[in-house]
Amino acid sequence: MMKYLLWFLGIVLTAVGVSDNPMLLIFPMWIFTYLLREPLRWMVRGVSSSVSFIGFGVFFGLLTEVFAIINNRSLPPEQRILLSPDPILDLVYGLFYYSLLIVTWYVLIMAFTYSKTEVFVITGIYGIFTEEVGQVFMRIFTVPVIGLLYAIVVSFVYGIFPMLAYMMSEEKLGAKRANVVVRFLVAAPALFVEWAVYGLFILPALKRVFQ
């Protein structure tokens, strides 16, 4: 019964996302991936954990970016909340961004034990602090209620794609054990270093090459 309810919910959310807000498509992406997890795992049964996790992570990340591009298409270029207002360049920049982020997560997961929930929550918090260079986090206090609701949506946008990569590669990942506090204390600076490296060095270099 639950399976049919999830299929129904996924179809409804897809219809709403296509007709109203494309960013909502991250939720049916989550639902359909969960429902089809066994066939998807079977497709990558012969590849290594690194190829599976990084491949799925980059794929789901770029798919999320496509939703963002469609969501921003009606806005003037200067108002688009993207890595680049140009859709093609945004995907190119996004390829490097999601690759670096998901590789960082792969290293963390192989070194320590993180659950899918931890990956989701930590990346979601990371997204709240880094999206729009901290403006999403500030709006929690400057625009009460609406700012908090927007931050929650942003946390889902960031948290879902690495969690799905983990779900698809779960049986392949072997890791050492560590205290939960240690896991969070290691992941937080690692992700922010990744963000800083991308923003300070990789993105400017890409812009010099493509613009």
Brief overview, please?
Helix content is 77%, strand content 0%. With 211 residues, the chain is an all-alpha fold.
What report would you give on this structure?
This protein folds into two domains: 1-35, no CATH class; 48-210, no CATH class. The chain contains nine helices and no strands. The protein has helices spanning 2-19, 26-35, 37-43, 49-72, 87-111, 116-130, 135-142, 146-169, 180-210. Helix 1 packs antiparallel against helix 2, helix 4 packs antiparallel against helix 8 (146-169) and helix 6 crosses helix 9.
* Series of H and E elements: HHHHHHHHH
What percent strand? under 5%
| Terminal CA distance | 53 Å
**Strand runs, count:** 0
